[in-house]
Amino acid sequence: MSILIQQATILTMKDTDAPFTGDIRVEGDRITQIAEHILPQPQDEIIDGRNKVAMPGLINAHQHTPMSLLRGFSDDLKLMDWLERKMLPAEARMNPEDIYWGAKLSIAEMIRSGTTAFADMYIHMNEIAEAVKQTGMRASLTRGMVFLEDDGGRRLQEAIDLVERWSGAAEGRITTMYGPHSPYTCPVEPLREVIALAVTEDIPLHIHLAETKEEVMKIRERYGMTPTEYLEEAGMFEQAHVLLAHGVHLNRRDIGRLKGMRGGVAHNPVSNLKLGCGIAPITEMLAQGINVGIGTDGAGSATTVDMFEEIKAATWLQKLDYGDPTRLPAKDVLSMATRGSASLLGLQNEVGILEVGHKADLILIDLAKPHLQPVHEVESLLAYSVNGADVDTTIVNGQILMRGRKLLTIDEDELYREVKVRAKRIVEGI
Ligand SMILES: N[C@@H](CCSC[C@H]1O[C@@H](n2cnc3c(=O)[nH]cnc32)[C@H](O)[C@@H]1O)C(=O)O
Ligand SMILES: [Zn+2]
């Protein structure tokens, strides 16, 4: 199958390219041509790109997709109360089918708001993988592991099974990571064991880090160090590629410890704002050459997984924090949500920019709207004015998943029916 997008405003996100008007051809799962004019072929599915921006799909670098079922059910609580009193009891009631439908709900929201890949950390990962496979999305999947009780190695075994069964599956759309949940839920012995496994198999790691002040205090009491030092002492940054979620409470020395690491930090500004966690020092990390991407965290905390909301929040917070509107300009924050996140998922040679030979993961944004006119600077509109509902078309791996705002791989009526019944049962009485 081939697709020809004609006369779109193309934003490749490569440093050297300014936005220009042109055509894009997709053949199979890859971009095969980008030029001012491309001759149509009889087999081409033609997409009119006029009044639309074509850009790389956004990449959500930190998600717990099935938490969409818990959206809006326990807002306005402190993180530890929210997690321990609400989320964990609700999660204990989720069966594998619930996880499948919750993941699908998040995926539908992501496709509708221009996300083409995500990194997920959760439980019952086979069901999430099935949802990814069926919907055509791209994902890096992680079985999150809390090591607070002896489970006879069950969690670790599930993580190993996920990596064995799903790495490279669904035409290569699925990759995997190992996921020790956080410094405060992972004692040093199992942590070292998981790191060793990740290094031996060359599988990345995905972990929460320094999300709250309470976490920093807890780790200082337990081990006499910062959460970042704790991970460094365990050997996490020596060889493994690591996706660190949050990194809100990092001091200057912590940031120094991350310099030169493989992987980087997923910034989740809306979740951090809503849980009152603080503002991650991401412009300092960027200045130190640390790679930073953007994620949403689960919809249980952020309540939305629209990456355009995160883009706005990320840049506003840096400007506010430093009292300096020149911080994190439009181009840089868009780069974080595309190229930065792609690197966190280890996919920087495949996605994150529009480039011939790369996988065809791209979105079209409709500019024929009052809030998106006139067009002075495309990047400014994308960072400050666009929202997820302005995305017209979403393409992943050369397959059109949404066209003219209609989802092509998900039956939405069925989805909402399933979600309604399941969500009610899960939260009853909690
Ligand atoms: N409970 C599992 C681990 C699940 S991994 C994903 C976990 O991360 C939790 N989670 C979601 N958002 C956050 C956050 O912001 N900080 C810390 N944990 C979170 C989520 O509720 C879920 O339990 C076990 O027994 O091993
Ligand atoms: Zn999280």
TrEMBL record:
The reaction(s) annotated as catalysed by this protein in its Swiss-Prot or TrEMBL entry are: S-methyl-5'-thioadenosine + H2O + H(+) = S-methyl-5'-thioinosine + NH4(+); S-adenosyl-L-homocysteine + H2O + H(+) = S-inosyl-L-homocysteine + NH4(+)
Give the matching CDD domains: ATZ_TRZ_like
Q: Which residues bind substrate?
A: E91, R143, R154, H181, E211, D297
Occurrences of domain Amidohydrolase-related (ranges): 54-400
Source organism, top-level taxon: Bacteria
Tell me which EC number(s) this protein carries: 3.5.4.28, 3.5.4.31
Does DNA-binding appear among the keywords? no
- Give the matching InterPro entries: Amidohydro-rel, Deaminase_MtaD/DadD, Metal-dep_hydrolase_composite, Metal_Hydrolase, MTA/SAH_deaminase
User: What protein is this chain from?
Assistant: 5-methylthioadenosine/S-adenosylhomocysteine deaminase
Task: Name the gene.
Answer: mtaD
